[in-house]
Every structure is written in structure tokens, then in C-alpha cells.
Design brief:
Helix content is 48%, strand content 16%. It is built from twelve helices and eight strands. Helix 3 links the parallel strand 1 and strand 2. The protein is elongated, with a radius of gyration of 26 Å. The structure holds uridine-5'-diphosphate (UDP) and magnesium ion.
């Protein structure tokens, strides 16, 4: 397996000279004459989980597209997120045939957010474009993103204007999620923007500094800030293979998104509790007065039982939400790495 040019130590960024052109000695600069700057290195980063059907199509289209963009070098960094099919074999084959393709093999399935974090951390480019393997994000957009970057933007978002390729249920729940998230949290995430975007080296470095293990990437991208431009596109249907996100996975993803960026769901229980307690005191006063005037009234079990059940239910919801946050604190405190790399394949670009 590891016969492909396995170079574990090839992770040293080759950016040194790009990032600090001042290190070039005056002599060398003079010798270079009209010293040509190295072309921009673009890293296209791809999380892959069970994508054997679509990967050959993907490589064909993306390489073709990237070769057409003027004045850039590119590398394609694929992260195999513990696939159970032939994804890794296909990636290794691609590394062998094309030196611009690299593969990072994670030790198991860590989920898309972790795979994407790994991919961005491994990328060496001056600009980085995360893209899905399933060709739902059209590679043709990358050239337009680079144009915007050259205008001086650090992040170029691709916004989906037409989501007709997604199911109605997915579109509705997505819209509801964006509304809820942005109402609750200080960091606004742009509606209908996925992970497909261009980020500059500075943004990638800022992301790498965020130590959290629960990585809701859309939120983190928004949190780091920087100058952002938007371009619009139509979301295509998946080119091959199946979606990896069930309803339950998407629900957990939404909970992750809200709880990672807002504590309002937890704090709101203080107000609900205060309101309920206030109502209870008012009711107690009313009952006392009534008893003093009219004497003891036997009926009332039904209302009592309702009150107990209602309050019990509300308390349990409150506890559950508290649990969401405590659980998150627990995982963060353990300080485990976000992912584990099993192997790196492909040559130095
Ligand atoms: N993915 C991943 N790990 C996972 C699930 C998905 O790396 O646990 C990758 C997947 O291979 C694809 C991208 O994330 O490149 C988006 O997944 P998918 O197309 O299934 O999501 P959808 O477009 O349906 O939201
Ligand atoms: Mg997809």
C-alpha cells in the first residue's frame, strides 16, 4: 500500500520563500534579474468518505479545470475519512499518476468537519479551496474565486442560489436552521453557503489556531472574519454515489452549530424558570385568599397533576440542554486531537 511515494516528512510548507520574500538575499535577487515571482500555489482540498463511484469523474473534471487557470500552480489534497470502500486505493492510484495529487489517510471516520480541518491543515497553498468530492460544487467557479481574491478579498464565498437539486425537506430545514442560528448567535453565518469557498493563507492560519475539537466549520469560517466577497452558483445534483448525511446526522449537525456559537438556549431557562415560579407564587396567593374566604375546596387533583407534569417536563428539557453544553465541555477538556493521520501519500509538489 505504502509503495506510493510515501513521504511523511513532506509536510514542511514550501511557502517559506513565498511568505517571506525578504529572506532572498540581495545577490540572488540581482542574479534573477527581473526576478519573476513564483506563481500562486492553489490547494484544492477534498474530504472523501466512500466516494469510489465519483472520484474518477472528479479528478478528470477538476484537473482539466485547474489546468486552464492562468498563473497558478495547484495541488489537490484529498483526505480519506476512514472510507470502507475503494476510495483509498483510487486516491493512491491518482497520486501515482499525477504528482500534483496528494492523499492523507485518517485512521478512521472522523466526520466531514474533522476531515476538512485535516485537509486545510495539510494544504501548503497560498490560497485554499475546500470542495466536495461529489461535484456538487462546480469546479468552474474556482477561476472566478481567484479573480475576486486577486481583487483583494481574503475569503470568497460561493452561495447556492438555486438549491433545486436538494430535496424540499432539506431546503426547508436548512432555511429554518440558518434563521434560528443567526437569531441566537453573535456570529452570523451566511445563508446557503456551504464549505465551498476560497480562503487565503492568513485565514487558514487563523483557523489552525482555533483549538476546539467540535468543529462546526461554517461557523468557524465566519468567526475568523476577514474581507469576504460572494459569488453565486447553482447547486448541481451529486454526480455519483450517495449522500453521507442522514436526517439524524443533519439534526446533530444543527445542534452542534447552535450550541457551538450560542449559549442562549441554556440561558433562556433562567427566564422561563423565573416566569413559571412567578406564576406559581401568584397562584398560591390566589388559592390562599380563596381558602380563607370560602374554606377548603376538595376538587383540584386534575390541575395539580397537570402542573406537576408540565413543570417536570420543562425541567427535563432544561436539564437536557444543560447536558448538551456540559457534554461539549467534557469533550473539549479532554483535549484529544481533532483527527489522527495514518499515512500521507504523494510527492512533494
Ligand atoms: N464526507 C466526509 N466524511 C463524512 C461524511 C462526508 O469526508 O463522514 C465528505 C464526502 O465524501 C463529500 C462531502 O463530505 O466529499 C460532502 O458529503 P455529501 O455530499 O454526502 O453531503 P451533502 O452534499 O449530501 O450534504
Ligand atoms: Mg454532496
Amino acid at each position: 500500500m505504502k509503495s506510493a511515494t510515501f513521504d511523511e516528512h513532506a509536510v514542511k510548507p514550501r511557502l517559506g520563500s513565498r511568505l517571506s520574500p525578504r529572506t532572498v538575499s540581495a545577490d540572488a535577487e540581482a542574479m534573477a534579474g527581473d526576478s519573476q515571482e513564483a506563481p500562486t500555489l492553489l490547494s484544492v482540498v477534498v474530504p472523501c468518505y466512500n466516494e469510489q463511484e465519483v472520484l474518477p469523474l472528479f479528478f478528470e473534471r477538476i484537473v482539466d479545470e485547474l489546468e486552464r487557470i492562468a498563473d497558478i500552480d495547484f495541488e489537490i489534497v484529498c483526505v480519506n475519512d476512514g472510507s470502507r470502500d475503494n476510495t483509498l486505493a483510487i486516491l493512491l492510484g491518482a497520486c501515482r499518476t499525477d504528482a500534483r495529487i496528494r492523499a492523507i489517510d485518517l485512521s478512521r471516520n472522523f466526520g466531514k468537519e474533522a476531515a476538512l480541518s485535516a485537509a486545510i491543515a495539510e494544504a501548503r497553498g497560498d490560497i485554499i479551496v475546500p470542495i466536495d468530492a461529489d461535484l456538487q460544487d462546480p469546479p468552474e467557479l474556482i477561476a472566478r474565486m481567484i479573480e475576486k481574491w486577486r481583487e483583494g478579498y481574503d475569503i470568497v464565498l460561493a452561495k447556492r442560489m438555486d438549491r433545486s437539486a436538494d430535496t424540499l425537506a432539506k431546503r426547508w430545514t436548512a432555511a429554518a436552521f440558518y434563521r434560528l442560528h443567526n437569531a441566537l448567535s453573535d456570529v452570523e453565518i451566511p445563508e446557503n453557503a456551504g464549505d465551498f469557498r476560497l480562503i487565503s493563507r492568513e485565514v487558514a492560519d487563523a483557523l489552525a489556531q482555533l483549538p476546539e475539537r467540535h468543529r462546526f466549520m461554517k461557523g468557524l469560517f465566519a468567526w475568523v472574519g476577514f474581507r469576504t466577497a460572494e459569488i453565486e452558483y447553482k447547486r448541481e445534483p451529486r454526480a455519483a454515489g450517495k449522500t453521507k448525511f442522514s436526517f439524524w446526522k443533519l439534526w446533530n449537525f444543527a445542534v452542534e452549530g447552535v450550541t457551538s456559537f450560542s449559549t442562549l438556549p441554556m440561558r433562556i431557562w433562567t427566564y422561563i424558570g423565573t416566569f413559571v415560579a412567578f406564576c406559581a407564587v401568584v397562584r398560591a396567593v390566589m388559592l390562599t385568599v380563596r381558602t380563607l374566604i370560602w374554606g377548603v375546596d376538595v376538587p383540584g387533583y386534575a390541575s395539580l397533576a397537570t402542573a406537576i407534569l408540565l413543570l417536570g417536563g420543562i425541567q427535563l428539557i432544561g436539564l437536557g440542554i444543560l447536558g448538551e453544553y456540559v457534554g461539549r465541555i467534557y469533550f473539549e477538556v479532554k483535549g484529544r486531537p481533532i483527527y489522527v493521520v495514518k499515512g500521507r501519500y504523494g510527492s512533494r509538489v
